[in-house]
Amino acid sequence: MTLLSVIVLNYRQPELLRACLYSLEAALPEVDGETELVVVDNGSGDGSGALVRAEFPGVMLTELAENRGFTAA
User: Fold this and answer.
1) Distance CA 11, CA 41 (A)
2) Any idea of the CA torsion for 51, 57, 62, 68, to the nearest 10 degrees?
3) Which sign does the torsion angle of CA 54, 13, 10, 63 carry?
4) CA 67, CA 24: separation in Å to the nearest integer?
5) Who contacts 20 (Cβ-Cβ below 8 Å, separation ≥6)?
6) What is the pLDDT of residues 3-43, one digit of tens each?
């Protein structure tokens, strides 16, 4: 059962995304199944999705084909 979900919206900020995810991974408790990190990439097209897949395999990633704005993402 997931008790806490952290959702990060990204648009063309791969370095800030990397720093954010490292910080969150360090801050969130390492309890099986109780926390999850989710990244929604809002059509960046800058390799942000590849960065998440390569460096943060435990993070759930949703890649939108286009920038749909903050509310839609």
Assistant:
1) 6
2) -30
3) negative
4) 24
5) 8
6) 889 999 999 999 999 999 999 988 887 656 688 899 999 99
